[in-house]
Amino acid sequence: MMQQAIPYSSGKAWPSLSRAPEAWELKKIIGGAGEIRVAVEENPVVVVGRSGCFMVHVVRRLLLGQGVNPVVCEVGEDADEAAIMASLPPEAHDERRTSAATVTLPAVFVGGRLVGGLDRLMAVHISGELVPILKRAGALWL
Predict the structure, then answer these.
(1) Domain locations along the chain
(2) Which of the residues 37, 84, 124, 137 could staple to 111 if both were Cys, CB 3.0 to 4.6 A apart?
(3) Domain 23-137 is classified in which CATH homologous superfamily?
(4) How far apart are CA 39 and CA 48, in angstroms?
């Protein structure tokens, strides 16, 4: 059976659709650097990014595709990236980085350690290293 199209000007209400996937996303709004530190210490995968940033969405979709549901910590547009990174414990920083100030948002933390931004996460994923890192952090059980 074929359904009838609803003309745009008919005045009829559009059929109800299920909520958009963005409405399902669990996002944790973070107020300060201390709260980000707690989130990184208590969760296996944390993404820290600016509110409404499309790169945060890309990072989250990549991680969801691997079977991981990360905690997303959003900061305001005026947040100081260097101050956020400096507030994290030293073990959270990747030893290959020269300083915390070189990290840009979004920043991805797995197992309490900084993986990097979107570019670094993509490189780790493409090289096949992402799944073992996620398993060691306890984010994947397969």
Answers:
(1) 23-137
(2) 137
(3) Glutaredoxin (3.40.30.10)
(4) 10
Tokens of 95: 């030893």
Radius of gyration of the chain (CA): 19
The residue written with tokens 């209400």 in the block is 13
Q: Could you give the CA distance from residue 30 to residue 55 in angstroms, rounded to a whole number?
A: 18
Task: Look at the pTM and tell me if it is higher than 0.85.
Answer: no
Strand segments, DSSP code E, in the chain are 27-29, 45-50, 71-75, 107-110, 113-116
Query: How many CB atoms are closer than 10 A to CB 68?
Result: 18
- C-alpha to C-alpha distance for 55 and 48, rounded to whole angstroms: 11
Helix 118-126 to helix 130-137 angle (10° resolution) is: 100
Residue 54 backbone zone (phi > 0: left; psi -120 to 50: alpha; other: beta): alpha
- Measured in whole angstroms, the distance separating CA 124 from the mean position of its chain's CA atoms is 15
Tens place of pLDDT per residue across the chain (142 aa): 555 555 555 555 544 444 444 433 445 555 566 788 888 889 999 999 988 889 999 999 999 999 999 999 888 877 777 777 777 766 666 555 444 446 678 999 999 999 989 999 999 999 999 999 999 999 987 6
